[in-house]
Amino acid sequence: MISLETAIRLIVIGQELLLALLFLSGQGKRSARISGALFLISVAAYLVTSSPDLRVASSGVLPLIMLLSVADPYFLWTFAKCIFDSPLPPLWVMVIFVTIGVAGWLVFVFADYLPETWMPVAITSVRGVSLIIVVNTLWLSAIGRRDDLLEKRRRFRPIFVTLVSVQVTAVLIVELFLAGQDAPQWLSLLNAVLIGLMTMGISVPLLRLSDNFFPAREQPRAAQPEPPAPALSAADRVLFDKLTAAMDDGLYRRTGLTISALADELGYPEHQLRRLINRHLGFRNFSFFLNSLRIEEATTRLANPDQARVPILTIALDLGYGSLGPFNRAFKAFTGMTPSAYREQAIPAGSE
Predict the structure, then answer these.
(1) How many CB atoms lie within 10 A of CB 252?
(2) Looking at the predicted structure, is the pLDDT value of residue 223 above 50?
(3) For FRET with 18, which of 174, 259, 281, 286 sits at 20 to 30 Å CA-CA?
């Protein structure tokens, strides 16, 4: 007869798998749905690997389940990136983190054939990288709130950060307390219940607000503000005209421009400006809105033979970027190529 703790774990695992199926069968952006489902499946895998009874019961496929469990923070990372439109770190950082995760998993799988000293190193490395990934995810989710133009998503961010923080803290405390040993039944039960509550707390709002979190279209969008929609109220038409005039005057070039600073400049409440840019111009993040205008001007300047000798860094600084890195990333996101490659293609040899 199975214990209460094991029964609760099986119920939560079923919950995770059912929610994963709902995510996969939902509408919207495929990458968001798949990453969400993988995150839920990896949580279910963690529930298996952290239970002695379930590890024994699933011994035939335990290496695969262990891999999914190790990948849990990575799937959380990509899931948050998709629902919050957060940037991923540089490729070399991701390669290092993935390599550490895979190496740790291989040590777990072949522990019987490796020196005993390898296991503590693998556990510490995997936990350390996992903690960095989760902290980075929470940080980007929290600071991205000020740039977010979707009001419902802005309200969800603190919930996401709080729930994930509580769960991660609980897991870390348990693992530090146990120092590699299996948890007592009451602690294991508490951990499983917290995971179930956290998952429901995150998944239910996402499933209810799928149009907000899983858009059918990818960013970035059009480079120019669209004409005001017929549904614009008189007040919104005035705000639209003021916004358009300010952008035509080059206000988007101001370094460090925020949605609140722009609202103050236009003399309108911030929430009204957010709604206008989101609903009538089609942008989900303020940075996408700014970048669309900045990159459009950048492409014009880079294609101009008269500016062929102007350093790309100068153009980036003129457009409001604090350094070359953010400009290069934004430019490639919008055009699919680097600024230097774009200039080489746009200006034929001998045109200078």
Answers:
(1) 20
(2) no
(3) 174
